[in-house]
Amino acid sequence: MPRPNDRKPTELRPLSFKRKYTGSAPGSVLVKMGRTTVLCTCCIEPKVPDFLVGKNKGWLTAEYGMLPGSTDRRKPRDKAGKVDGRTVEIQRLIGRSLRAVVDLDKLGERTLWIDCDVIEADGGTRTASISGAYVAVVDALNNMKKQLPHPVGDILTESVAAVSVGLLNGEVLLDLEYVEDRDADVDMNLVMTGSGNIIEVQAGGEEATFTRDQLDALLKVGEAGIRTIAAAQAKALGSKRA
To answer: Counting beta carbons within 10 angstroms of the beta carbon of residue 15, is it exposed (0 to 12), middle (13 to 18) or buried (19 or more)?
Structure first.
């Protein structure tokens, strides 16, 4: 069965990172993977949560949201600070993914606030958010480097990127669009560092099971996709890359 836009099974959608998308946040990136579009910003606050006060250690946290017009049906805004379970799960995933490559002990008592706002959703919003957020963090740290206690290259240990992979009609597909994700028998979100270490694997069957061989195949295709995303991140950052 042909994929949308005649993509090959192991081919990513067109990917771009537009840095300095806004003028206020020290780090801001518009990431696009196909039609999926996310604005990722990183702000640095000179304080930490209460549990870290006095420990000379920093923190990183993330918030994620989908704008009302990001889907075919208008998505109501979260009200009175209440967010749904999916949003909470994705926020925590983004935070865990970025904390894995930030040495918080070298940040000082500062908090990196990552905000990922989905402008258009066509599958893979959480993975695009992670890949875009990394670029935003690099720019934010570089823009504030004179105020940091350590060089940016010491604070950021390496890069991080994420991608979705799935099984549809027995075939392994990379970077699922919504229509593929909706019908997939197995869906995986893979988060890895630029050196190839795994941060997180989220995989599950939808009224289906999968074998160890299929899991290995999903990981292999996902890892190759992340290498391509990491190369695109490095190209977008150029000399700013940590």
So the answer is: buried
Q: Which residues contact 176 (CB under 8 A, 6 or more apart)?
A: 123, 124, 164, 165, 166, 184, 187
**Number of C-beta neighbours around residue 139 at 10 A:** 22
What is the reported pTM? 0.94
How many angstroms separate the CA atoms of 239 and 242, rounded? Answer: 8
CB 31 within 8 A of CB 120: no
State whether residue 169 is helix, strand or coil: coil
Task: For residues 73 and 69, give the distance between their C-alpha atoms in angstroms, rounded to a whole number.
Answer: 7
Report pLDDT for 72: 84
Query: Mean pLDDT score of the chain, rounded to an integer?
Result: 94
d(CA 234, CA 6): 27
Terminal Cα distance for the chain, rounded: 41
Structurally, at CATH architecture level, domain 10-240 sits in: 2-Layer Sandwich (3.30)
Among 231, 230, 217, 229, CA closest to 9 = 217
